[in-house]
Amino acid sequence: MRKPPLYKSFLNALHGIGHMVLQERNFQIELAALAINLVLIFFLKVHATEAAVILAICGAVLAAELMNTAVEKLCDFIHPEFHVKIGLIKDISAGAVMLLALTALIIGLVIYPKYF
Ligand SMILES: Nc1ncnc2c1ncn2[C@@H]1O[C@H](COP(=O)(O)OP(=O)(O)OP(=O)(O)O)[C@@H](O)[C@H]1O
């Protein structure tokens, strides 16, 4: 089968991200957190290395949220009914996001205080 052109792959990925921006509350909250961090980095003149760490963890949280939502949607598609294993799969997937969000919180607590 012929591979689709590269720009088509970008459009497909943007379609997925666009869906998340419009429909998924957690993703919207995490995008707002990224925006707040960008403002803080700019106004507090955060050191470039620290800014890179902050932006990297924000990106990781957003990417994990994308994967978590994909797992949830896949679960709902293949098994819409209640099942204890589906619950566990969703909980594990959500756990990945929570782990990264907590890491982001700790990184923020380590970096920001010295700028105030
Ligand atoms: N089909 C199911 N069978 C068993 N438990 C389920 C099922 N669907 C959802 N759950 C339970 O409900 C939780 C929330 O699942 P849901 O699909 O509603 O995600 P959500 O509310 O969008 O979560 P998130 O905030 O992580 O995006 C799951 O983590 C799981 O514990």
From TrEMBL:
ATP binds at E24, E72, E81, F82, H83, K90, D91. Gene3D superfamilies: 1.10.287.3610. Mn(2+), Zn(2+), Cd(2+) and Co(2+) support activity to lesser extents. It is a multi-pass membrane protein. This is Diacylglycerol kinase family protein. Keywords: ATP-binding, Cell membrane, Kinase, Lipid biosynthesis, Lipid metabolism, Magnesium, Membrane, Metal-binding, Nucleotide-binding, Phospholipid biosynthesis, Phospholipid metabolism, Transferase, Transmembrane, Transmembrane helix. One of its GO terms (molecular function) is metal ion binding.
